[in-house]
């Protein structure tokens, strides 16, 4: 009798353990994987690449815009495509309406086109978050011949709030130590922060993001002393006072449409455009990392690819979390 009671108790205990394990597995997030759509939508990545190549061929600046979209998406609520959502009437403003994103972000229409093309052949299958990750990779390939495999399987988020943007994105006036902490909160290392900053090898920044470096810098210096005088004089011609609107200037004056390590060469020569750029060379915390990227451009390119993959995994939704949007601008 005692043995039978023990046997029943043992069976119950094992059953509870199995059930608990099953529940835990169902709640634990699934991992992203390369080739996630190999059977569900085998041409998904090819379709995205065609859309990106066509758009960037017509407007090379869109490569930087799309990479920036991915970065701004991942740093707020994780890589869930929340940045792509439009504001809905009567509800709080969406991420894309925030001053850090509007009107400077570019490339939304490329993601829309890729999504429409995919929906035509694989409806309700490929997430907008994955399309954005693929598009960022294809932009890196188009602009700098930096290719890499993108693990996929992300799901789309249903929430997008402008109020969450500034507390997550690093502003252009951050110094190295602040940038380190900002990226650390997202699970990215100091070297990855410096490596990803190399995306500023392409694209533009508006004068309002760096004009404080050109005049009225502080009580001691009218111009930021870390900025090369000749470069400062050039920038003043690009950003006249008073200005007509908010003009844009190339982040990298040497190779403005090529994703390469010339960005770091500029920093070494005190020609970094933003405070958050130049600080990487001026700070002992990151100076040697910059110098390594100056010397070894091919190594930087490999690190950039790996860092993009890592960034693309920040707080992703997988499995049954979130949804697969039909339209990247709207929740289902």
What would you say this structure looks like, in words?
With about 325 residues, this protein is mainly α. The chain contains twelve helices and two strands, in the order H-H-H-H-H-H-H-E-H-E-H-H-H-H. Helix 2 runs antiparallel to helix 4 (about 110-120), helix 3 packs across helix 5 and helix 7 packs across helix 12 (about 295-310). The radius of gyration is 23 Å and the shape is globular. It starts with a helix and ends in a 21-residue tail after the last helix.
Please tag this protein with its features.
332 residues, mainly alpha, two-stranded antiparallel sheet, 12 helices
The major β-sheet equals:
2 strands, antiparallel
Unreliable residue runs: 5-16, 18-28
What spatial order of strands do you see in the largest sheet? 1-2
Number of helices: 12
Rg: 23 Å
Percent of residues in β-strands: under 5%
The proportion of residues forming helix, as a percent range, comes to 40-55%
Q: State the order of secondary-structure elements, H for helix, E for strand.
A: HHHHHHHEHEHHHH
The tally of strands reads: 2
Task: Return the average pLDDT rounded to an integer.
Answer: 92
Q: What structural class is derived from the secondary structure elements?
A: mainly alpha
What global shape is seen?
globular
Instruction: Note the gap between the termini.
Output: 59 Å
């Amino acid at each position: 009798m005692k043995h039978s009671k023990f046997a029943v108790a043992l069976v119950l205990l094992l059953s509870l353990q199995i059930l608990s394990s099953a529940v835990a597995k169902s709640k634990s997030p699934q991992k992203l994987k390369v080739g996630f759509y190999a059977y569900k939508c085998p041409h998904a990545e090819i379709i995205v690449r065609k859309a990106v190549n066509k758009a960037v061929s017509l407007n090379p600046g869109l490569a930087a815009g799309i990479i920036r979209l991915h970065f701004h998406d991942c740093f707020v609520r994780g890589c869930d495509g929340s940045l792509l959502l439009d504001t809905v009437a009567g509800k709080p403003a969406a991420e894309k309406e925030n001053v850090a994103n509007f009107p400077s972000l570019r490339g939304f229409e490329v993601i829309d086109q890729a999504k429409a093309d995919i929906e035509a052949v694989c409806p309700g299958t490929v997430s907008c978050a994955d399309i954005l990750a693929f598009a960022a990779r294809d932009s890196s390939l188009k602009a700098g011949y930096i290719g890499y495999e993108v693990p996929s399987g992300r799901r789309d988020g249903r929430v997008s709030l402008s109020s969450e943007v500034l507390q997550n994105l690093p502003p252009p006036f951050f110094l190295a130590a602040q940038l380190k902490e900002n990226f650390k909160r997202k699970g990215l290392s100091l070297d990855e922060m410096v490596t990803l900053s190399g995306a500023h090898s392409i694209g533009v920044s508006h004068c309002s993001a760096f004009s404080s470096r050109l005049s009225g810098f502080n009580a001691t210096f009218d111009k930021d002393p870390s900025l090369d005088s000749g470069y400062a004089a050039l920038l003043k011609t690009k950003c006249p006072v008073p200005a007509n609107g908010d003009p844009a200037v190339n982040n990298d004056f040497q190779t403005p449409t090529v994703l390469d390590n010339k960005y770091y060469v500029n920093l070494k020569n005190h020609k970094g455009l933003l405070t958050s750029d130049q600080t990487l060379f001026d700070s002992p915390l990151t100076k040697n990392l910059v110098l390594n990227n100056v010397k070894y451009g091919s190594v930087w390119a490999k690190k950039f690819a790996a860092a993009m993959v890592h960034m693309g995994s920040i707080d992703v939704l997988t499995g049954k979390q979130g949804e697969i949007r039909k339209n990247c601008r709207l929740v289902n």
